[in-house]
User: Fold this.
Amino acid sequence: MAYSFRPADESVEAGLKRVARSQIESGLEHLRDEELPQEEKVHEIRKRCKKMRGLLRLVRPCFDGYKAENECFRDAARTLSNVRDASAVLETVDEIEIRFADELKKAALKPLRTQLSADRDELDETEIEETLADMRLVFREALDRVDGWTLSAEGAEAVSEGAAKTYKRAVKAMAKAESSGVAEDFHDWRKRAKYHWFHLRLVRKAWPPVLEAYADEAHHLSNLLGDHHDLHVLTKAAERQFGSRDETFELVGSLCAARQKSLADDALQLGRKLFWADKKAFEDEVGTLWQASRSEPA
Assistant:
């Protein structure tokens, strides 16, 4: 469980550096692995970037280097987003075909799959490899900077405020998504909910039986909202390829909309259970658990 603070950490700052090094070094290992397919490297690097941004957000209020480091990992992930999206839409087609197998005629989505596969195959592998080479430099330079990171707070104060800010933003994003029903708002909620999940993972050692279960539910919420977004991306891809009046687009659009409605309902139901407290109550709870875990006898 490298992606978590530990009661044995000398300080929050020491734990921050340990977790950051673990994530960055893991990313470098994936980049050096000649046996790992290019697509998997892209997936792993984007995952490390997101986890680093979650870590940085936890200590954001007391870390002056937050802005520069967050932008570093945000921009790194963005350079690889088109590669990941090209595969993700095909995976979503697979899921649609399985879920609606009884309603779909055989090969009904073949025109869409053929076009999306062609789009993925058109990606320049040499260009992707050059981008991955750039990522090696980005990660090595970031690793060199970690030793110089300093926090202006310690103990519960260093983690509770950042966790509470993310929690509050997730609550607001959920309310907006529920009110509007717009896919973009659900995607924004997903981003906030995912950072909340990361924060729960990072502080889970403060009370493992409870916080690990809570983190599992937050992970499930993130997956529901991720699937919701993937369906939106697929719908837009189908519209670009075939036009809004094409029968393939109409079929895909209707199936995606039906599945999105179900996912939204499930996500909102779970979200109301996860985001029941106000920001201050959540901040106090994190702080209390953190402090208590550091006061327990070894």
Notes: The longest helix spans residues 208-242. The mean pLDDT is 94. The chain is about 80% helix and 0% strand.
